[in-house]
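Action item from last week, closing it out:
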Amino acid sequence: MCLKCKPVEATDDAFWDQFWADTATSVQDVFALVPAAEIRAVREESPSNLATLCYKAVEKLVQGAESGCHSEKEKQIVLNCSRLLTRVLPYIFEDPDWRGFFWSTVPGAGRGGGEEEDENARPLAESLLLAVADLLFCPDFTVQSHRRSTVDSAEDIHSLDSCEYIWEAGVGFAHSPQPSYTHDMNRTELLKLLLTCFSEAMYLPPAPDSGSTNPWVQFFCSTENRHALPLFTSLLNTVCAYDPVGYGIPYNHLLFSDYREPLVEEAAQVLIVTLDHDSATSASPTVDGTTTGTAMDDADPPGPENLFVNYLSRIHREEDFQFILKGMARLLSNPLLQTYLPNSTKKIQFHQELLVLFWKLCDFNKKFLFFVLKSSDVLDILVPILYFLNDARADQSRVGLMHIGVFILLLLSGERNFGVRLNKPYSVRVPMDIPVFTGTHADLLIVVFHKIITSGHQRLQPLFDCLLTIVVNVSPYLKSLSMVAANKLLHLLEAFSTTWFLFSAAQNHHLVFFLLEVFNNIIQYQFDGNSNLVYAIIRKRSAFHQLANLPTDPPAIHKALQRRRRAPEALSRTGSQEGASMEGSRPAAPAEPGTLKTSLVATPGIDKLTEKSQVSEDGTLRSLEPEPQQGSGDGGPVVGESGQVWREQRRPSSGSASGQWSPTSEWVLSWKSKLPLQTIMRLLQVLVPQVEKICIDKGLTDESEILRFLQHGTLVGLLPVPHPILIRKYQANSGTAMWFRTYMWGVIYLRNVDPPVWYDTNVKLFEIQRV
């Protein structure tokens, strides 16, 4: 089978057929038989043979799709060609000279002349994609035949309505077909080929204007593909209907090998790639916010060209939303179930793909977002996300997972209902490496965020703004924080308001502003019920006085930075009473040395990620004009102007030694004067003397008496006029679109190890690094 030796005529069928005629191969065999070095050698030394091989393999797939693959031999040929193309395509994509090959039309090579002329005009890529789409709805190969008779009356693949052959019940389809191991395996192989076709994106460097569409995805999700709707529905339903536990019997997966999982993983990966669409630049009605999702079923304005995005944005039936949300929650909670009865259920590995899919659903379909927030079902998504965030916080190889979890919570926190839902008591005891507390889901969120900030690794610092923005967004709605959560918030304030932290980077003071905003929101809007927080503020009042008296003279600034050099630990746990962790939990572990990870592009700063809105009296949101960039009185570079500047800036630098930014008196004064301390100072002024009096009068050291007093106290008429509530809502932007693209392909690259489809090829979208 020497392809390097000499050019072989395309008409030499005996030679070419040996590549796909073999009966007993698997995709792993093809990868072993066709080593990378061999493919590259043919590409360099005998390009015409590689071209013919690709063209002949596509031709075989087209023939299989035409004939309907009735014989076992035809099915085998289709599978082998599919495996061979999966093997070869990445090596075509990695060479810029070959990149246009699949988009060119193949001259009459090898055509027996009997072909119609117009077929010749199709680029190879299009023929390949249409053949794969047809083959995914091929009776007795990838779907069940509806006819139970002889081969003669087998369904004609051309007149077949693939909407009747959707793979799984769910959105828009009520009938659940008999599961078939063979059909699932065949679908998985074809989807792997499809994913490989789409993966050309991995071989292009990240472009700042993420508007560049992937031509493979663009064609596959266009009206040219007559199976677009049933395929979109099949992929979505296959993912959302999957139950890894299997019939609800613990340990069942040990008895039955689950052949569905590879299909579900592949379906999830193909789905998120087809939905890679920059909503910031599209004219999709559901994303523009002003229509608040009512334009879902109207045809105007037209949705995006990408039919998968279009269909996703138009799902609107309550029962469809329920099916999707229940499925997502079931799968995301799966790794958590592990901790009750170890090994009792199959542990799925594709939670990152599911989070990307959930993000796409909320971003492209506002009706779905509102549905999610309408009931406390949103908490079934929240708890797994908090579990993943807490579990991954020390692991450098899972920075991407941390980001997407935080992005989803940021998106949800822009809606009032999310804050309201957080008041539900938290009773599910998922073993997590956090202090034990009794309280609500809001307490869980704050305790986990505190843990991430104080004991995560350095690379998470760019996320601190996002984490605190989420807390600010929900704070006006939190009815009663537990003592544990209240202490955590004050510990963060103490840590962030030390002079060395405030003076060591241009943006660090923003974190103090966020925390003060949280305290002000709760005092002004939820004072009754929050005696724990009020008590914690009184106990830690020195932190607020210190802020009010922050030194601004150059010698003091210099001295604070000197102290920083002697104590390089960023945020220690000192001053935070770390109660015992929950029973059965394992500490968050760092990555094993040598773990592979893929690089990510920098994320935009919080001012680019969000847009400020003011909550009016009637609860509606009014968008605020963005203030001029220097408005917050920063002397340093603007946040997020370039993610890189921002990321570096946050790492407390030793003043100007790095030739970078250094703090000045004017700079400190410019923001110190804006610290919103009035409400808290007034509260302290009124309550501290009263609390001290109780303590002296009753010789008290007992907290419960003071808390009882605070519970019944009131500050009505004593506080400044309540400020309007500000919500920072996530807004789509091309920076995050590019981030999602690199993250998603990085996940797919690392998760496809058997066979290693892209391993050791020259990808450009990200770098592969070892921890």
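Closing note: The longest strand covers residues 610-615.
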